[in-house]
Structures are given as structure tokens and as C-alpha cells.
Amino acid sequence: MSDRPARTYRTAGRAYLVVDTQACIADRRAFARSRCRADGAPALDGVLFCALEERYDPPRVVLTAYGPDGTTEAVPANGALCAARWAMDRAGTDAVMLDTLAGTRRAESHGREVSVEVGDRVALPTHATGLAVSLPESRPPVVRGPVSDGRDDSPWTADSSCDDGGGGEPDDWTTDGAAQTTDR
Predict the structure, then answer these.
(1) Which of 155, 162, 179 is nearest to 27 (CA)?
(2) In the chain, domain spans
(3) What dotted CATH number matches 6-146?
(4) How far apart are CA 165 and CA 27, in angstroms?
(5) C-alpha radius of gyration, the chain, whole number
(6) Residue 144 — pLDDT band, cuts 50, 70, 90?
(7) Which ranges in 53-127 belong to alpha helices (H)?
(8) What are the pLDDT digits (tens) for 88-106?
């Protein structure tokens, strides 16, 4: 795990905090609610918890998305693009497989852009400015767009103790690569 278990990635006007599941976050729902709001206004479109499995070829990413209200949700196309960039940066590869609640999707890097297969034509984004959608005949539809490199680190790091101070919204965290993740 790197010294920053979470980074903010942006694509097509959307921003997601991508969190390595090695970071110990005892209450993911409360964490997502607190991180998606800044001064009462929406700051992020969601939080993506990612577990990178590099032993596969291409590497796999188990991905769980939380919305601003703290509920788990289907991974939106923009979020999938951000999670894929995070995973490819971590694994040093140009392709990964995203394992989501909706199934497994292939993602590939194309320089600054990332492409991700989406499950079916019905789920295609209809108003995503900055994203291209292609409909290959023999494969699932693909969404493609530019994704920031994630260098705008979130100002906190995770603590291995899983102690969120009892308030459910952790603020003062440190770094420890031996962390374990729990979810309530």
C-alpha cells in the first residue's frame, strides 16, 4: 500500500475518492457521507473502495461504490473510469478487470484516457459530457474518457486501529500498511 491510501480522481465533471481497501475504515457508510460533503455542499460524487488483486493477468479490482448518502450503489461509468485509472496506476499495467456488483468489466488505458466496458446498452450514460460511447457489435458497449492522474491527494491517511473516535466520521488518521478493513 502506498503512503496515501486514498486519492481523488476526476472525469467528465465528476469526482470520486478512490480508497485502497487496505486502509482501515471501520464504517464505510459514515466515511462516504463525511467525505462527499464539504461545508454542507456536495464535494464528491462518491467513494470507491478498491481491492487490487495483482496475481491475475490482467489484474483484478474488487470495487464497491458508496454514494454521497452512504449507501452502496451500482458503479457509475465515471466511477468505473476513475477506479480503473487508480488500479492501472498501482499495478503498472494498461488493462484491469473491474469486479463490481453488476459483474466484471474490462478496462484499458489509452494515454490520458481510460475505457471501460459497460454491462448493457440500457445502462449507457445519456448526459455525460466529455465521455465517448462506442457500441461494438461483438462486445459490450464501451465508455471512454480522460481521467485525472490522482495526484491531488486527499489530505488524510488511514489508521490501522479502525478507531473512528466513536463518531463514525474519522478525521485524524495516520499511516500503517498493516491495516485491516471492516464494514458495518
Answers:
(1) 162
(2) 6-146
(3) 3.10.310.10
(4) 11
(5) 16
(6) confident
(7) 77-91
(8) 999 999 999 999 888 899 9
